[in-house]
Amino acid sequence: MLRSRIRPHTNLIKFLALLLVSVLLISCETVGYYSQAARGQLAIVLGREDIRRMLLDEEVAPELRDKFNEVLLIRDFALNELNLPVGENYSSYVDVRREHVVWNVFVAPEFSTDPVSWCYPIAGCVSYRGYFSESGATNYAASLEEDGFDVYLGGVDAYSTLGWFEDSILSTVMSRANYQIAGLIFHELAHQVIYVPGDTTFNESFATAVEREGVKRWLVFRNTSEVIATAETDSVRQQQFVELVADFRDRLDNLYESSLSDSDKRRDKSRLQEQLRQDYQALKQTWDGYDGYDSWFARSLNNAQLSTVSSYNDLVPFFNSLLDESGRDLNAFFVAVEQLAQLSAEERESRLQDWL
To answer: How far apart are CA 309 and CA 326, in angstroms?
Structure first.
């Protein structure tokens, strides 16, 4: 199979600079953690293959060839129609040879749905800790569970390097529908438009809003009415899922803020978790057999797990409103969001609270 090296010197310089910063700012993490992160990212960089070169290789499977052609179209659309910073992003492919590229550990106290945060160079403080090996994530999660925390471990199929490296399309996402791959690319590129270190909910909700708007426009551009109907159905189900989880998260918040004893809180927490499962089963009866969220509801439904939904969705209605105020013009929308991003955390929170 044809292989290419993509800006090796530039990538090496960036990699070494990032590693140096990580070592110098080691106060909030361990050397071992940074080492596995550095090795994992380096493996991605060194494993990249240029998509256009791969399309010249007759050994590439037809299904993969079709996906590559679609990715190239998505890149062009992201640049020309969504004004996203495409650059060389998603012009290369990496076969990571595992189910997920990263496993994220999410943590929350026993009686709070507010997630614990970790702070890193470049990215700032975020509400998860990522590992390039499932065993590393599992071991870390187990140690936190022993300390009494609620812990959720989730596999991640793609992530953004925030412009430090040209992001690649990974083997972990190639089985998805084409419009879902488009959404993923739009979402990750949005992080390169605006990213506020330390504000996970702001960043992820903004990227989710861009993703959804981008997918709507992409499907119209592709003029695939059947796929549009499928995507709209998926979107409705996703919104119903988010609203269901958010409702129970609020119920748990009320429980934790009550004056009940810890033992009573544990009892009622368990009761609410079971009620959430039952309400999901009732909701699923309206979905014509769709069971895409079954594996999620098969988990513990603890505070850490529920926090993952809020991070990606809580502020999406706000960003949708801001997009409307911008006349659905993405350039104007990006400017408005950038103005928010430049505010202090307190000023930004005040603005958001005023809207809420």
So the answer is: 26
